Amino acid sequence: MINIAYLSIGLMTGIVSGLFGIGGATIMIPALVFFFHFTQHQAQGTSLAAMIPPVGLLAALTYYKAGHVNLKIAGFIALGFFIGGFFGGFFAQPIADANLKKLFGIYLIIIGVKYLF
């Protein structure tokens, strides 16, 4: 039964990711923290690991077929993401879980307010 709940998180994340280009941070991490009582570090690590295989492959393919993907730019972004992910993960480890949650919340608020206005 728990596997169905995890599958549901993945399904919702995939739908939102395909729809808006986001999902891991805005759905998967809060769901793992609030519903499954993961620590912030565990939720972030699990979210990153879950995104390795699919990372929007089918959604990106759909956008590509519609002519909405610039592969050259995507390659540069992917390279930066690859390197930046290492450093982000490295810097996150010594941060206390409560502080990481607060930083994550502040980040989401700032992005949300920016989009609203």
In words, what does this structure look like?
The chain is mostly helical and 117 residues long. The chain has one domain. Helices cover 79% and strands 0% of the residues. The protein has 6 helices and no strands. It is globular and about 40 Å long. The protein starts with a helix and ends with a helix.
The arrangement of helices and strands along the chain is: HHHHHH
Number of helices: 6
Helix content: over 70%
Query: What count of domains describes the coordinates?
Result: 1
Strand content: under 5%
Give a nutshell description of this structure:
This protein is mainly alpha-helical.
Reconstruct the topology from this structure:
Layout lengths: L1 H19 L3 H11 L5 H12 L5 H9 L5 H22 L4 H20 L1
Helix pairs in contact: 1-2, 2-3
What key phrases describe this protein's structure?
117 residues, mainly alpha, globular
